[in-house]
Amino acid sequence: MIGGGAGDPVEMIGHWGAVIMIGMGLVYVLVLLLISRRPPRIERPRHGGSSRAKDILVVILMPCLNEAGVIGASVGRLLDIPDDRLRVLVIDDGSDDGTADVVRAIPDPRVSVMRRVPPRARLGKGEALNDALDHVRATWGGDPGTDVVVGVVDADGRLESQAIDEARRAFRNRRIGAVQFGVRINNRFSSLLARMQDMEFVIFTEVFQRGRRHLHSVGMGGNAQFARLDALSALGDKPWTKSLTEDFDLGVRLNGTRWVNDFRPTAAVHQQGVTSLRRLLRQRTRWFQGNIQSLNLLGRAAREQRGLARADTTWQILTPYVLLAASLLMASFAITVLIVVSKAVLGHSQTWWWLLSAYLLAFGPGVVFGLLYWRIERSEGLGPLKALAYAHVFVLYGLLPALFGWRALLREITGRTGWAKTAREAEDPVGAAAPAGPTAPAPGAARPEAAPDPQGIRIRPALSRVDRPSPSAPAIPPMPQRPPRPPRPPVPREHEVAA
Question: Model-level pTM?
């Protein structure tokens, strides 16, 4: 410790505060690590309490704002899944880059585009999802013989093909209200920064999400979240909030209902990682600020949750403040090391044994995380030594909250909540290249236009790819092309909105 004598009260408070903070953090991670290694016990549904998978309609919502460079490829991969009980609703939130045109050019009746126009557009992801949910209720929610499951996939999301079946398998249990799948970074081989983000998501899902299955405190992410329509309706007409982290808010509030949130490690969504440190700082500042805004959920968690679920949810809500306090501890440690090294350079005798304990405390958990990551990535050619090196880099990567955390707090204090979206790399449209069917207009035919309703929303079915060529984009093919599938029988459209 720095300054003061051995009996300095300020120093003693700081010392024991640091010990308690480090101890609680290590115990928390260790407990979740241990319980994450065993499968959870979810009650089997009683007689009449299960759903047949074939009766579950899955509607994927894809919120978009100027995503013309990636939306075609993402929707195409979803439509490659031969499933006539799958629907894709793209939410164009006031784009001005032709995003809706790209979607309308896809010749598959299972996809539709909902256009939000001013003054309803660009009010946040939560508002866009709530508007889309109104449409889902009106279009598919009236059939008592069908369970409707609503999924949320980002515009750059590449949902693994088995995810839809895995979601249906989970929702056969009527106690399950929401399911979160894993998240992977598809460009993790292209940069060290993207690799660290992939490692971050893998560790979060493998340790924290899997562990929280036992605590009934699984959280929801912004990508690859699936929720039963009935569970969303239990939160009111607008289940998603205006928070910058509406996904976290949704998970906390769902955990307070009669429904159970589940995590399924059997499928994942692959998304683009940020390859610029500046863009990463901006993205994580937004996330951190959203978590700060979630402090108002503390009372709700205390009232609606019980036992370990309540304790863990409270920890999750307070995590941003714990990280801010930890950043002060790290700064204090850095100053201590600097002083010790300076004294050693000046010839003062120093003891160095404490560096070993400091290394074990700082890098020990990272090494364990590195081994977990290696077990998953070794099939992709990752060796144990490289995984060990990544583990040490990951610990340094974990210091970034000291930068964006305080920036987020400053933005929240000053009332700055507006954000520019994170830019994405353009991709070549693939998939969904089935020949034009009866719904395809003749080349050059006029495209039907839907007039906006009083709320500023337009619903349009997708049209044939021959109506408008896809925009050119730089080729970035991180995932291999799939072999062509045999043509699927036409699926009747669920809705048509006349001009």
Answer: 0.81
